[in-house]
## 1
Amino acid sequence: MDWPCEGLARSPISVGRLYDMTGTLALSTQGGLPVPIDESGLMKQVRKKFDLALFGAPPAFDQPVHVGRPNVGDRADFLRQVDAMFDRLWLSNNGPIVQEFEAALAQYMGVRHCISMCNATIALEVAIRGLGLTGEVIVPSYTFIATAHALNWLGLTPVFADIDPRTHNLDPESVRRKITPRTSGIIGVHLWGRAAPVEELTAIAREHNLKLMFDAAHAFGCSVGSRMIGGFGACEVFSFHATKFFNTFEGGAVVTNDDALAEKVRLMRNFGFAGFDNVTEPGTNGKMTEVCAAMGLTNLRNVARVVARNRENYHCYVRELNAIRGLSVLAYDERELNNFQYIVVEVASTFPVSRDEIVAALHAENILARKYFWPGCHAMLPYRQSQPGAVRDLPHTVLVADRVIVLPTGTAVDERHIGVIRDVFACLASYAAKNTASDERRIADPVDVLTHV
Ligand code: T4K
């Protein structure tokens, strides 16, 4: 079908004109200006084609609805800790709040060591270096670019393996095919907080004498086989970025049950200092600050509330979107612990509107859906040239990256937002289906769009 371009979606069209044409927009006005019709900031109902911002209507929300809105616990609790920090005048360098935070996380995950860091990218680099990885390391291409960049930054080669299209996680058979004499390790990623195939990857690593670690950036508070993620492989790395289910503003951690590795990682995080004037390792500055750790302690006490909201949102999305033919919400295994942080919708090729057109339509409504992790690391500029065979070897990565949309959730989102998102999908589907069946004319400009109803 023909579809108005993104630029068209943003072209200003007067509210008055829209009322004249459709007569049904549920826009309310106050002193002539549109005002939201509910507390979610909703500006209109979306029932049919001309209710869509893509066709010139005002956006559904007056403010952007984000995928990565931070979840924040009790502010008074946080501010009390920050006050005490100011009294102590101890702001960084393994302060008391960082130590309390690390102990609390180690206990929460049931691991021996938690070494907090300034972010997960630095934590990955320190862990990779601490483990002594060299040459080639196998990673999924379908992940956030930081997984590959951490290797590249250290002068190592990320070798991209394919995923299982049902789980979006590493396909063990593809991993096997990527092993060469230069391979030193595997980094599994628990994508969307759903566990990588831990058992299979552990067996492959053992068989080929490779080191295995996990990028657990998405998997805080998740389990596999009823064991908390955090204790698998030689170590696991978490992200506590602002957009994550659990945040410390910026932050991350290496967690491990290996005493020697923990000791090395601790030293590397702080320039390799083993005491005053005594440097025993090459190191970097990966330290978490006190204020970040205070945010972590506050948010740790808020985890259950955020999980509950995310879970409700997830069920609401499943109910609303799975009812529309051609859409499916990636399922969480509810026998395990999940943080339900990512709402991942797959758009089938039979859906009458393409994934990119849907994203453009949602953005026009101020719903900032994302195409994570399109187009896959292998297709990003720094890696495109280095592995020319990658596209041939990564059919499932290409397939999945082309059909995923990640939708807003978290404590800033509720069923009212989800209802509107459902309406946008439904409206697009029914308009496109009708348009394709009955009207094959090219719609060239806004006037054309508006006159060929
Ligand atoms: N490994 C994996 C598998 C990862 O997914 C990540 C990070 C890492 C490693 C590395 O972790 P860190 O080094 O970051 O700790 C975001 C995050 O920046 C990134 O941490 C995360 N993965 C990735 C999946 O998502 P972008 O490029 O999408 O960020 P941005 O700025 O577009 O923000 C996303 C949405 O959140 C926007 O709609 C704006 C909104 N937002 C953002 C911030 C920071 C807010 O509403 N408030 C905020 O404070 O990467």
## 2
Amino acid sequence: MKPCVFVTRPILPGPLERLAAIAEVRVHEGEGLLSAAELRAQVTGIDALFCHLTDIVDEALLEAAGPQLRIVANYAVGYNNIDLDACRRRGVAATNTPGVLTESTADIAFALLLAVTRRLVEGDHMVRAGEFNGWAPQMLLGHEISGKTLGIIGCGRIGQAMARRARGFGLSLLYTQRKPLAGDLGRELGLEYVSLDELLEHSDFISLHCPLTPETHHLLGRTQLARMKREAILINTARGPVVDEAALVEFLQKKELGGAGFDVYEHEPQLSPGLAELDNVVLLPHIGSATVETRRRMGEMVVDNILAALQGRRPPNAL
Ligand code: GLV
Ligand code: GLV
């Protein structure tokens, strides 16, 4: 009997064909999310789960799947939706898609930085609303980014890709994470290692690129937001719960922060009350990795991981 793979949401066609050669592939074709109960009902007896960052993979789901489940393969680099300990206890491999979405996510972070500082979205709305009545010397004044300081929180692949972009735009760079980068990498990228507090106090722009873990949950809470410069702009393309979103809304409302560019939300897809009413924010619907090229590569990577597990090999991106 062929092994069975369940895919929780449809992906770009292509990668699944390689799986279909050796496995029965079932794709949930419906619009939107499966609830936890629907997901549990779908996974019974499967050998591999092809899941998305919107699927919670916990003890209950693994239990519902049963003992023949070999792999939970996440179509994302972030894997805070997966209970890794529960997977380990059951001998189920878990994998992610590192590296292939680095450039696309850094592009979105940089695009948000430019969009907020130069008020791109407000400008677009103005033109479409027929309110552009010709050039004016004080219309939509934003702020320059060159010569300013960008603080990068979490300097893995995506944080480093953000640093490379920022250097090209003439920004000075600070970063913080648990340990400084190894070897000469930090120096080569023009990055200075500082504490979180120093970064918060000295940065004009702050961009989050750390994973969501118990340690980074609300890494930026009220106390940290209060340390930031009043004009500072916060960019989040990592995970929503890294920021206390309700506190952020308050700081933005009181003009105790300059602005924000968000691609991810604490209670995604819900927004904290007040966030969408602010004019100093740009809000995107979690599209950091949403390019045709990246999503193709992510699909291939998930399939490589599943094929390895089904063939008894160690998946290349085992966590
Ligand atoms: C996207 O958010 C990812 O983690 O891949
Ligand atoms: C992404 O691939 C990262 O680890 O930053």
## 3
Amino acid sequence: MRVSTGKATVSDSRMFTVVVESFGVGRQRRAERQLTVPFAQLQSLMQTIALKGGRIRVIGSGEVNTRVEAAAPIKSETAPQPSAPAAVTHAVVPVNLYKPKNPFIGTVTGNYSLLTDGAIGRVNHISFDLSGGDPLLHYVEGQSIGIIPDGNDANGKPHKLRLYSIASTRHGDDLADHTVSLCVRQLQYEKDGETINGVCSTFLCDIEPGAQVKITGPVGKEMLLPPDEDANVIMLATGTGIAPMRAYLRRMFDHGERAKNPEYQFRGKAWLFMGAPKTANLLYEDDLQQYLADFPENFRYTKAISREQENAKGGRMYIQDRVLENAEEIFSWIENPKTHVYMCGLRGMEPGIDEAMTAAAAAKGLTWSELRPQLKKAERWHVETY
Ligand code: NAP
């Protein structure tokens, strides 16, 4: 199969042609077929093809010449194994369907706290209905959306958008394919003896179901999950940085999700390192415990609870301390070319993770500063930190 990719910003008005084998009934099934659809329908076509056992040979924008090259190829990817699922590739990841000048107006369907008694701060799970858009505002796991809070800034200008990592899978929490969810912490800091509340995070944490919100995007291709069902996935998250990981883990281990995705029945290993200040601040804990119970061979979960646990030096336990404790094993995972590492959350964790990986690599006679760029180039090292 050859996949021709479009430019990073895929325009929703473009038509895409998919060349598919073993799809359809009777004679059709034996022949190669070309199906041309608008971008908004491409993803659902891919899912239908996968469901019916079709094999995609080429995807391209505009007309596709199946004998030679796709009509508008920008770049071709290496051919996957024949068993590779017809899952989302970078070519079909939706980007910028809605822009700040013309945002989608979504409706809040739910807003609840993710914290338990004794937690620090405020972290909420907020969902929006996306139905009715043309094109439909759809997305894949690992992307972000923009929120434009109501009101004006200090200069009387409308607020600018803030990006949030999406915490739901492409199917949404209710699996109905038209919602998106976010995991938002209310930003609060002290300035001149006064507590300042973040504009957008406060707007979101306070919002009521039924309210209408300006949404842009989706954006981002850095944190996409590989379509390989046998991949190994190491996730390093601090606080709300768990958002994309929550989406990956649902896609991998939630029973409803698995039933929705016959082309993605995760069989690899997933290892989540989660950093939180207190036990009461752990996010999505019940779901994670369920995945541990249901998929003990596939899911591993390591916590660093900074204000309740101590590291070996007597300081706060951070995820880099957990990485160091497990360095040898993490490294043996990374040596497997099927392993991807995802890091999301506080930018401050990056130097600590690098330090831990440097020590682990050195123990194997390797140099982490040389290895990391190679992993990045192979699209196996994914970082999104703020
Ligand atoms: P938080 O609850 O304040 O912190 C999470 C944990 O990280 C706490 O245990 C904290 O420990 C620990 N921590 C603090 N400094 C650290 C360091 N240098 N290295 C490792 N761990 C450290 O987290 P949050 O408020 O949810 O913040 C998450 C951050 O992620 C925000 O900055 C947010 O903007 C960002 N974020 C980024 C993305 C993205 O890039 N896509 C998505 C979501 C969130 P102590 O507080 O006890 O020291």
## 4
Amino acid sequence: VIALAVGGGVLWLWNDAKVSTVGTADFRNELAVPSLAPSHVDKKDGTRVFDLRMQQGGKEFTPGRTTPTWGFNGDYLGPTLRARRGEKVAVRVRNGLDEASTVHWHGMHLPARMDGGPHQMIGPGRERTPRWSVDQPAATLWYHPHPHGKTERHVQRGLAGMFLVDDDRSERLALPKTYGVDDLPVIVQDVRFDGAAFDHGHKMMRSAGFLGDRTMVNGTLDPYQVVRDERVRLRLLNASTARTYAFGFSNGRRFALVGTDGGLLERPAAMERIQLSPGERAEVVVRMVPGERAVLRSHPQDNYGSGWQTRFNGGDDSFDVLQFRAAKRLRPSPAVPAALGEPELPEAGAAVRSRHFELGEGGINGRAMAMDRVDETVTRGTTETWTVRNNHGMPHNFHVHDVQFRVVEVDGRTPPPELRGRKDTVFVPSGTTLKMVLRFDGGPEFADPGVPFMYHCHLLYHEDGGMMGQFVVVDKGQRARTPAGTDSGD
Ligand code: C2O
Ligand code: CU
């Protein structure tokens, strides 16, 4: 019915009919919440140290059927890392797999050699310990492998986790903040099974990459979560490799969007839907009704997503994602504050240079990613405007390492509320041009002419296929150097 109202036409009716049988979950499993990663503080210099180990495992997503998986410190996904702004952190990353990989800190502002991109591979049995100072606002970030040409496969086997940053502002604000109780990580992935094993074949829309036929949250199929608080904060992460979702509640419940990829908004935005393409995050606060069962769903892509996915996926585009079972009596929660503070966005007026990126045939600006080619050289401490155009008959998105950018225009117009905050990944529908402002700040350790950061489409099959480029941050007068071959860790 919703589909008819929005789209009109026979196609949408047909989709709606299909939707009632596809992607419907029976919510029999309690939602797993990733544990908070233990850490210790180094007595010498105060660094908070975490341990991650990539390993093979097996997990019973369905009782009695063990699916071969990969995970960090466990069978599937990884623990939630958590640190405060101003802290020095180090993560000892060990590779217990049979093949080389690397771990990238998606959304984190850190020097290129710590970024875990494809130049910082870790061989089997080897390890690497990136260290940096957390110098960015509170946010929901995440980590995942980034081996060139193999990222889709490594992520969909289970290598992904969240990295939460806290600061004075996030601790002071009256937002739900008890992890696992009224502040929930919601890591959404689409999957398909062939018996017990994952089926990772590209079946539906081959050119998009892998599209599954059901979803899981935090590695739980058919998940439900019992809620005992009046308000719940959901940290939504689209950790799928290709699928874009439009999250909303089955009952049309509105929620407050309070944060985007890189931190809290200036003020909450009341929304009914939030669209997230692969790699994007959103923090939303939803108010529960005592005793209710509310379902977080992904609705057909009916906003600026142009319906592409719905049409080409044969209509399998609507999913029941997570059921909330509200207790009969809920603990009262404070109202969402009307103002959330200064979002720390770059200023368009400060831009000293502009660049253009075409996403299309052959990659970005007609070129496929090459490990030994630096595509762009950026000066540390400067602000730039980048325009990104999707010149292709399919959706892409655009992710930039190191920075949180500000989207200033979507096809010449003011962006919608969900694109007004700090972003590191943004959906770019076919035919659309986005304009963004980026500030490349950081201390002297951020200038590194020989180690590039990446920008790329976060539909991982596209990234693996070469829709990626490299930029270096240098100090004035420095020239980019050809990136050294990948080394393999200690
Ligand atoms: Cu989430 Cu370059 O990656
Ligand atoms: Cu793409």
